[in-house]
Amino acid sequence: VLKAVVLTVALIWVAVLVGNVLAHWVQRSGDLSPSFKVLISKVIKIALIMIAGAIALSATGIDLTALTVFSGAVGVGVGFGLQKVVSNFISGIIILLDKSIKPGDTITLGETFGSIRDLRARFVSVITRDGKEYLIPNEDFISQQVVNWSFSSDYVRIDVDFGTSYDSDPHEVVRIAVETASAVPRVVNDYKAPVCWMTAFGASSLDFRLRFWISDPANGLTNVRGQVLMALWDSFKEAGVSIPFPHREIIMKTPVEIQRPPRG
Asked: What pTM, to 2 d.p., does this model score?
């Protein structure tokens, strides 16, 4: 028993060490996609550990065929007891094979928005903009709707709504808005240039919608939207274009006193 334990531990340690070396070599390859690198690394480590365990059992004189029935019973028990673990493991393999997500992608799952840091056997590590790291089970990426902002392209369109007073020239407002958005560093102009359209005659303002594209959604969406709004404020203030606020007219009526004729 002592010989079997020592030999098994030694062989598994060597298998893990060799697996880490091979995984590091795979990660350095520039010809493979990030998700395929993770898949190959996991397969190598699992295969080496299984081979090490088989060699250790054979070296100690244990007949592997004698463990067939026992391993089948254990497998059924583990299957019933660890359904979620097995489900997450299989889901992780599916995710790596279909390449739906990969490290570096910007995703939205439910209320979580962030970039994928790592793909593990049981979970996916997602880092949000506020520094929190969510460990989301792989099964959730199979059973729920996932928004991958960078699945086929890194370009993301952002809309900014604003309004100006009725005294302003809408043609001039559109020109200023497009030029202002084009000058913001994170706004791309070579892919699709910013555009601005008048959308409605509002109750207190002329309503516009400014659309522009960015190529780095992992760096945040709210901050670039705020940068564009601040730049619009400065440009409109310099050009004399005012941004109105809602006006309400309140008419107060004094009730008229009705004079009654005297009695008698």
From this structure: 0.61
